[in-house]
Amino acid sequence: MTKSDLEMKAREMLKAAKLYCTSGRIDILLVLMKAGKPLSQNQISKRSGKNRFDKVTIYRTLESLLSVGLVHKAFMEKRAWHFELANHCTERQCHPHFTCTNCGDTYCLTEISLPMAKSPHKGFVIHRQQVRLEGLCPACA
Amino acid sequence: MTKSDLEMKAREMLKAAKLYCTSGRIDILLVLMKAGKPLSQNQISKRSGKNRFDKVTIYRTLESLLSVGLVHKAFMEKRAWHFELANHCTERQCHPHFTCTNCGDTYCLTEISLPMAKSPHKGFVIHRQQVRLEGLCPACA
DNA sequence: GTAAAATATGCAACTTAGTTGCAAATATTT
DNA sequence: AAATATTTGCAACTAAGTTGCATATTTTAC
To answer: Are residues A129 and A94 in the same domain?
Structure first.
């Protein structure tokens, strides 16, 4: 897929979500598509090349993408939130995220999926489930 | 269990872990025992009564308790880390944490446990697994 | 195509979480 | 009770994330 193909795709995603097609949103979507794993605001900023956007803009852009379900927030050991494309995630569950305790890298383990937790008797209604895994990656094992 | 019984218990836990029995550690353990759910530094501070400890002390205390496995870090939707007693948690998995999307309260669902994820072929070694659930609590459902 | 309306962006200033270094205080060991 | 080991408080700092407002860009209506 060429660069402009990806950009076309980003534009379609934004249009379908009824969001303005702005350079910020397109760029950030491209960065996330190419990364294929959760990135923090800071990482997104560094990867968005010459047209660096303001920190506030990145946060607000992520918020808008989040509000229409184009991205997800992933919980990580790091203090900052990480964001990733909502690709292949269902309403109820995304793939588990694996963080290597040795090198610190995070991977999306799209091959794995755990059964959804069953609500306990007391009347809890479970809508979504997120799973975080820790251990050693192939390079560090 | 009376207040001093709890304190005795805290002292035993610290002694077994070969940590100095200081008023800060005892107090913070008591707060966590009474809470029964993950608390942030800020919440711990508010709940530790008259002998409020310095923010830095609380962080360092939690760190020491963490290092000997007496407490766990829980990931939450909030920006701050939350800590809880490592009660009933195995090496590999703790109970899932449930956060109500309506009222924001967090519960420890000790009745639920998911099977551990199986390592995918590629050579990942999974050591620990954490599960976060979202939905409606009995009061909000 | 252009003007008006709707929304996004940048900047400055702010809040909150968490950390570091160092001197003073407290806990344990002898 | 003194010496040693460890913890605590304070001040000052870093980094993540937010808010308000003026300006710029995108879309819509004509």
So the answer is: yes
